[in-house]
Amino acid sequence: MGNDTAKLSxxxxxxxxxxxxxxxxxxxxxLEKAGYIVHRSEGGHREFSDQDAMVFQQxxxxxxxxxxxxxxxxxxxxxxxxGASESVAVSPVGAELAINTQYEERYNTLLDKVEELSETxxxxxxxxxxxxxxxxxxxxxxxxxxxxxxxTKDKKWYQFWKRExxxxxxxxxxxxxxxxxx
Length: 182
Fold this sequence. Notes:
The chain has 182 residues and is an all-alpha fold. The protein has helices at 10-17, 21-33, 50-66, 70-90, 93-153, 172-180.
């Protein structure tokens, strides 16, 4: 946890970020499992700082943009912020900035890769949509062909020589056939 003195509850963080409190608890557990230190009150309740709110926002953004699981995204975010919090206690200011910069670069590289993958996924989805349209057109053609074939099968194969009779009320031969039931 940073040096911020403001103590925020799970509900406060949830409202700030636009998530439900249960999601903030899930994020907090994932971050703690990844090594991020969340301050707790004497009663055992989590108390958050403005720095923690920023960490939760980064975790939310990473999960949304990349489609990563919360656990994997929490490891990335915790690695970025864990190094910064450890360097405060051990290192002088110059070393702290160097370590913080290192984690910042790794985090930014990861975000760039996530955005790259997201763009690739969008391109693949567009390609799949075009292929689905092509497949639909082919299926329509197959259906129309089947219907045409079915229509030709109604005529017996041995009657290929018969022509289609067009009803002409002035044709005496046709009138004679109708009259005699042929």
